[in-house]
Amino acid sequence: MHNVIELTDIVKTYQRGEITIPVLHGITLSIEAGSMTAIMGASGSGKSTLLNILGCLDRPSAGTYRLDGLDVTHCSRDERAEIRNSKLGFCFQHFHLLPRMSALDNVTMPLDYGDSGLSPQQAQDRGAELLAQVGLAERMDHEPAQLSGGQQQRVAIARALVNRPAILFADEPTGALDSRTSAEILELFRQLHTDVGVTVVLVTHDQNVAAHAKRIIHIQDGLIAA
Amino acid sequence: MRFYRRNIKRLISAAAALRRNVMRSMLTMLGIVIGIMAVVSIMEIGNGASRTLGKSIQSMGANMIMVMPGAAAAAGIQQGSGSAPTLTPADVEAILLDCPAVAAAAPVVMARTQVVYGSTNWVPANMFGTTPAYLQIRDWKNLDEGECFTEQDVRNSNKVCIVGKTLVTELFADCSPIGETIRIQNVPFRVIGVLSRKGANVMGMDQDDILLTPWTTLKYRVSGSALGQVNQSASAGSPDGVNSFGDPYPRSHLEFYPTLTTTQMINTPRQTRMTTVDQICASSVSTEKMQMAVDQINATLNRTHHVRPGEAGDFSLRNMTELSEMFGSTTALMKSLLLMIAGISLLVGGVGVMNIMLVSVTERTREIGLRMAVGARGRDIMIQFLVEAVMLCLIGAMIGIALARGVSMVVTLLLNWPIAASLPAMIAAVSVSILIGVGFGFYPAWRASQLDPIDALRYE
């Protein structure tokens, strides 16, 4: 298995006026394709910053980042947008579904921004297929407000997968859910990982959630703790 | 194809975004609606006004060119414009032959004298001897009754005339005058036609107070010396000359040949070798070719009158261009003033759009963050908001145009003002609204596109 993510000596500092705030102090890390990894750390440990860099939402101050064999360290805003669109999928704690849009439209929304080359019909078909995969075949026309939290997160997962990304990032995916739905969602991640072979990176501060992953990386004060 | 499809998608999603908050979209549109409505209805009413004005100037003869003879002057005494007998019927022929921009030309002989029918009499404001072409020049070819005299009548100096509506009222008490005989300076004329009503001209003068005869008849058969006399009984027309108190030099009446009776004189009109007419009326082929026609007539008459280059001609040209330009500029001024006010309301509407778009961007920060996270570039976000703004303005413009049509119809119904639907105004309204959409939507859209996805996603 090749490494889909390779970080070398990643440093991130924020400039707040005169003061420089170092957040990541040099992280070297690789994640295998097809793996399920959890990144753990207390709040303020720098795990969100690491996720932003991994997710191409932000650029490291120093170090190199190779994503799927491609050096993305110095990509421009638009290039990173394209990479996010074609190679990465995101699930957020608060789902971030667009209101007053059907579940199906929410799922196919990312296709509007890329060169997927799909016809509208094909896009609809793929969205429907993914919704069926996450168990929402019956609720495609529902708007987010009509769905429960767990169902909303399932829609968000389907949306993250619509462009067949290399990696699925989940940022506290169960943070807003009760324990029973959390278990269901985590089970869904595991399923996607084993059955479909999606590379999953979970970011969490919850030991129980992290336990679902094969590999757990602890972040402490901007460094990987042993 | 994909480009097309993507744009359709953009339109649909913009429409969905506007529909998400119907009430707010409507209120935002209101400014644009009112602005566009004001602009379009002002244009329509203004156009209607200038069209009516154009028509009334046209009825005076918008394309009419008048050629007046120059001023006679002897021993330093100027007689005023039109006093020199320099224009001849041959000039009319020359103009018709040599000026392609001239549609028609007619000589005019003028008189102001009494017309008698039975026991009533009247002095028409305009008594013109001319040719049938005159009616074409005045755009007055549709007669109410009867017909116009012909070229044949002109050649034979036939004693026929056509009269205006005012004369019908004053002389014939509104009965049909066709076939009746009236007398001008004791010369009997048969009425063969009645002109249609034209009303007062722009100056307020009654255009229907008119009598037209062949110019040869008026020139030769109606005694030339008396044409300036308003009152027949006061004219020295009595051949016996019994009362000679007013004449201190009776000998000047000494005639070497036997005096002709009035009847004899009428029956044997003496054509002077050099005939002059008082005026020449001509019309240009179109209003656009007016200047060309004027130049051509000038050149032709300078040639026939042997005017040397640099020397002033013995004639002058008048046309309605200045008058219509004056009226036109007045209405244009009014229209542009009103348009300016309407434009300000459009501007205010545009600011309203910007306001709401800014609110919308702030409100949808998380949506923007999410769209960026899943791969929307700044440009995509910007286009999305621009399309929304433009769509808002366009829909507003459509409603505004529809309302403006309604407003102008109500105005026509209630105030009886003329209106003219103006396609250019509508096209302008639509393009202006697009411009407003882009102009005032740009800043909010640009702000949206500059958001950082990380911050935007975290925005509460």
Quick overview:
With 226 residues, chain A is α/β, with parallel strands linked by helices.
List the topology elements.
The complex is a heterodimer of chains A (226) and B (460).
Chain A (H helix, E strand, L loop, with lengths): L2 E14 L2 E14 L3 E5 L6 H8 L7 E6 L2 E2 L5 H11 E4 L11 H6 L11 H14 L15 H13 L5 E5 L7 H18 L2 E6 L2 H4 L4 E6 L2 E3 L1
Parallel strand pairs in A: 3-8, 3-9, 6-7, 7-8
Antiparallel strand pairs in A: 1-2, 1-4, 4-5, 9-10
Helix pairs in contact in A: 4-5, 5-6
Chain B lengths: L1 H18 L2 H40 L2 E6 L3 E2 L2 E2 L10 H10 L3 E10 L3 E3 L2 E3 L3 E5 L2 H5 L5 E4 L4 H6 L3 E4 L1 H8 L8 E4 L2 E9 L14 E5 H7 L40 H6 L11 E6 L5 H15 L10 E5 L1 H43 L1 H9 L4 H38 L7 H27 L3 H6 L2
Parallel strand pairs in B: 7-12, 9-11
Antiparallel strand pairs in B: 1-13, 1-14, 2-3, 4-7, 4-13, 5-6, 5-10, 8-11, 9-12, 10-11
Helix pairs in contact in B: 1-12, 2-10, 2-12, 2-13, 3-9, 10-12, 10-13, 12-13
